[in-house]
Every structure is written in structure tokens, then in C-alpha cells.
Specification:
Layout (H helix, E strand, L loop, with lengths): L1 H9 L5 H24 L6 H23 L8 H17 L2 E3 L2 E3 L1 H19 L2 H27 L3 E8 L3 H12 L3 E11 L4 E10 L6 H9 L4 E6 L1
Antiparallel strand pairs: 1-2, 3-5, 3-6, 4-5
Length: 232
């Protein structure tokens, strides 16, 4: 047991074996997070997460090498701080805003935490990196279903409805009110398509306990002139 502990401690350093182990760990952990994102066809997938994790690991390894081996009088956290700031720009590139829809926030957050995980590996804090990898993977893999279930039973509901023309909007609101649903707020914008502009209606509402989200969506979809409906 003592030999195993000594071996692990030696891998926390700045030697060749330690560097090889850290980069291998970065590839493994970054790949575990990235493979789930890639499977869902997200902008940043398997390779991106690996490269981000490896880059963060290298940044921390360079900082430690400069301080411990080259005896450079520097703040070893400086490069790591720049990594955290830089990942913000990469994460912003994965966020897609279409009309009222925002996608890619989970991927952006995953990239940021992947970089933090790489910094842990580079610093030799393997225990934290292992726990972080497990928790991140469980969150992005299994909490999606839980999140959808919580949303489906919530009395608050946001829907995005595209209609053929503005005349349909009055009937849309009347249908919602007949279902004893309270409308908190609504926003109407125009979305361009190949032929013309279609009104896009974003509605925030609160339903009575007996109503299901699927019932509301079905009722709105049955209105003549409704092109599409999507729950936010």
C-alpha cells in the first residue's frame, strides 16, 4: 500500500513519467465528457473536450515546471487563470441563439469544467479530477431525463408558437384562456422563412394542477393556422 501511495505521489511531480501520466489522464477524462456531447451532435464533441482538457493540463504543467525546475519567480496560478478566461470565448462559440431559443449552454459549461478538470490534473490533484469527472458525466448523461420530468410536472409553462398570420393569435389566446390557464406574459416577433414572415408568439403561462403539458400542446397544435409549437 505504501509503495502504491509513493508511486502516485511521484506522478504528481514534473518528471517525464508524471507528464505522460497526466496527459493520458487528460485524454481519458476529457474523452469521457466529450463522447456524451458528441453522441448528441453538439458543436463541441469528443475531440474538442480532449484538447481543452489537455491544454489546461499542459498550462498547469508548464507553470509548475517553470516554478519548480527552472526556479522562475512567478505565480504558478497565472497561466491557469488565463485558461479559465480563454475557455469563456470557446464556450461562447457553442451557444446558439435562434429566435427565442438558446442552445449549447450545457456544452459551454462542460467545456469550462473540463478545463478546470485539466488544471486539477496538471496540478497533481488527481483525487479532485476523478471525482469531478464522475460527477460531470453523471450530470450530463442522466440528469437530462430528471430535468425534463421536473419541467413536465411544473405548473409553469413556456411555449413558442409560430402561426401563419396575426389573425390566428387572437384564437390562440382564447384557446389558452378556455383551459383555465393564466397568461403571465407574451411576446410577438416575426420570423422570416422562404416565402414570407410568420408571427412567432412566445407565451409564459401558469396552468392549473389538473392540466398536463401534453394536453396544452395538443390543444394549441389543433388550432387552424398554427404552423409549429415547441415548449421552451
Amino acid at each position: 500500500m505504501k509503495h502504491l501511495i509513493d508511486t502516485i505521489d511521484s506522478l504528481r511531480g514534473s518528471g517525464f513519467a508524471a507528464l505522460a501520466f497526466k496527459l493520458t489522464l487528460a485524454v481519458l477524462f476529457g474523452g469521457i465528457i466529450g463522447i456524451e456531447r458528441g453522441r448528441k451532435r453538439r458543436p463541441a464533441g469528443y475531440r474538442t473536450h480532449i484538447i481543452v482538457c489537455m491544454g489546461a493540463t499542459l498550462a498547469m504543467c508548464i507553470s509548475r515546471y517553470a516554478f519548480e525546475v527552472l526556479q522562475v519567480n512567478t505565480d504558478i496560478s497565472r497561466l491557469g487563470a488565463q485558461v479559465i478566461n480563454g475557455i469563456g470565448f470557446l464556450g461562447a462559440g457553442t451557444i446558439i441563439v435562434t429566435g427565442q431559443h438558446v442552445k449549447g449552454l450545457t456544452t459551454a459549461a462542460g467545456l469550462w469544467t473540463c478545463a478546470c478538470m485539466g488544471l486539477c490534473i496538471g496540478a497533481g490533484f488527481f483525487e479532485c479530477a476523478i471525482v469531478a469527472c464522475i460527477v460531470i458525466w453523471l450530470t450530463i448523461s442522466y440528469f437530462t431525463g430528471l430535468e425534463k420530468n421536473l419541467i413536465s410536472i411544473s405548473q409553469n409553462m413556456n411555449v413558442n408558437v409560430i402561426v401563419s398570420d396575426t389573425a390566428v393569435i387572437h384564437g390562440l389566446f382564447e384557446t389558452i384562456k378556455r383551459m383555465d390557464i393564466k397568461i403571465y406574459d407574451s411576446e410577438i416577433t416575426n420570423i422570416k422563412n422562404l416565402k414570407n414572415e410568420s408571427p412567432n408568439v412566445l407565451i409564459e403561462m401558469r396552468m392549473p394542477k389538473r392540466r398536463r403539458h401534453s394536453e396544452v400542446i395538443a390543444a394549441i397544435a389543433s388550432i387552424e393556422g398554427v404552423i409549429s409549437i415547441e415548449e421552451e
